[in-house]
């Protein structure tokens, strides 16, 4: 697939019909919708709830994310990589039912160990049924969303992102519940998004219980290595709010969460393009040209966006309330670090396309150790801004490693 720059109006028209750019466009819109709703959600939550309640809520939502991280089993990546070349219904049902079952098991184990993991939020065990329900619909939303992307139906995935916006109005009637109100708003939004995606997928797959054991056997190495790689990748970010709540305070966790929510705005388009690159790479494109094109467009967009956050970030934080202005220095560090994060975010899908999952696992293990280890040390020494120091230093080291790998492989 040719992904060189368009030079004429007809070529531009063809590019807009190209699945790579069409999916990139809708994935980008979806990211904007998700992050935009998230920005508005936390802005409203900061007005309706105390800083401490927001901090506890971030730990609860991170707990849900941890259950997801340990129950995906690599099938969220497998469904994109192997759906195009296998029986769609068999792949979808296998991925859906296995991850749903794993979510229930992991959720029960997490609730049983909550006193050891984070005593500050141990009260969630009293609401175990709802916690497990929200975990299940979160898992279904994730798998169905990946299936829609695999079918190149990023426009449907965009609608799913829009439906997640229902969490905004839910904040109002749930405000009396404190931190649980924020958590419930997220959970019911996932429920709505899961139902929508299942309805949309009825035209592409048959929803039946059977699991394809042969498919599991064939993709076991790919799925299991991606599972480990994804745990190493996602756990540090998910653990951070819980770690800050226990090492520092719920208020500091709220500052961290809001700063990262704004700082990661700059990665919307780069992440969308990397996802689209993985989808199209699974269908077959020229990888070298794809990487060059991806990096070029990414840095053209990323550089002015980072400057905007660095200059106007204080104003954005002010929208949450004056208490959040203390996170400005942390926000600037996070925004600048995105220049290093981009190389890592493209390296992962490139290796998945090449089926070189072992390299991903090693890279993510290094990230896991660096990010958690440095964060623990820097949080104790510098306070919440230490999380930013750990973040940028980790990605600088990873970026250097990727450059050395690229030179060693003769990619550059």
TrEMBL record:
The lineage of its organism: Archaea, Methanobacteriati, Methanobacteriota, Stenosarchaea group, Methanomicrobia. This is Lipopolysaccharide biosynthesis protein. It comes from the Archaea. One of its GO terms (cellular component) is plasma membrane. InterPro entries: Poly_Biosynth_Transport, Polysacc_synth. The keyword Transmembrane helix applies. Pfam families: Polysacc_synt (PF01943). It is a multi-pass membrane protein. It comes from Methanofollis formosanus. Keywords: Cell membrane, Membrane, Transmembrane, Transmembrane helix. The chain crosses the membrane at residues 25-44, 56-75, 96-118, 130-151, 158-176, 182-205, 225-248, 254-279, 291-312, 324-348, 360-382, 388-406. Signal peptide: none annotated. Its main location: membrane. The keyword Transmembrane applies. It is found in: Cell membrane.
């Amino acid at each position: 697939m040719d992904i060189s720059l368009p030079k004429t109006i007809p070529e531009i028209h063809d590019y807009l019909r190209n699945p790579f750019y069409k999916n990139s466009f809708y994935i980008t819109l979806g990211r904007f919708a998700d992050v935009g709703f998230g920005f508005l959600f936390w802005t409203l939550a900061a007005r309706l709830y105390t800083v401490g309640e927001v901090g506890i809520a971030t730990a609860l939502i991170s707990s849900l994310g941890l259950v997801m991280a340990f129950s995906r089993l690599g099938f969220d990546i497998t469904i994109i990589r192997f759906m195009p070349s296998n029986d769609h219904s068999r792949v979808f049902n296998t991925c859906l039912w296995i991850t749903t079952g794993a979510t229930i098991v992991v959720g029960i184990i997490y609730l049983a160990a909550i006193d050891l993991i984070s005593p500050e939020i141990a009260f969630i065990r009293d609401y175990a049924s709802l916690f497990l329900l929200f975990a299940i619909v979160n898992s279904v939303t994730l798998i169905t969303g990946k299936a829609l992307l695999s079918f190149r139906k990023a426009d449907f995935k965009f609608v799913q992102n829009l439906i997640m916006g229902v969490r905004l109005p839910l904040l109002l009637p749930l405000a009396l519940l404190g931190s649980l109100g924020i958590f419930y708003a997220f959970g019911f939004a996932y429920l709505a998004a899961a139902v929508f995606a299942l309805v949309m997928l009825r035209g592409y797959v048959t929803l039946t219980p059977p699991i394809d054991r042969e498919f599991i056997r064939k993709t076991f190495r790919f799925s299991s290595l991606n599972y480990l790689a994804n745990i190493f990748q996602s756990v540090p970010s998910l653990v951070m709010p819980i770690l800050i709540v226990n090492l520092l305070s719920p208020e500091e966790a709220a500052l961290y969460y809001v700063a990262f929510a704004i700082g990661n705005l700059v990665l919307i388009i780069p992440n969308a393009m990397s996802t689209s690159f993985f989808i199209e790479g699974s269908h077959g494109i020229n990888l070298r040209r794809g990487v060059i094109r991806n990096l070029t467009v990414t840095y053209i967009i990323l550089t002015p966006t980072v400057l905007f956050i660095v200059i106007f970030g204080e104003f954005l934080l002010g929208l949450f309330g004056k208490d959040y202005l203390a996170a400005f220095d942390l926000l600037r560090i996070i925004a600048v670090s995105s220049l290093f994060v981009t190389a890592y975010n493209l390296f992962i899908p490139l290796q998945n396309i090449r089926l070189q999952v072992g390299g991903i696992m090693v890279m993510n293990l290094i990230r896991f150790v660096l990010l958690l280890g440095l964060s623990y040390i820097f949080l104790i020494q510098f306070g919440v801004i230490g999380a930013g120091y750990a973040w940028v230093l980790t990605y600088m080291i990873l970026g250097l490693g990727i450059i050395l790998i690229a030179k060693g492989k003769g990619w550059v």
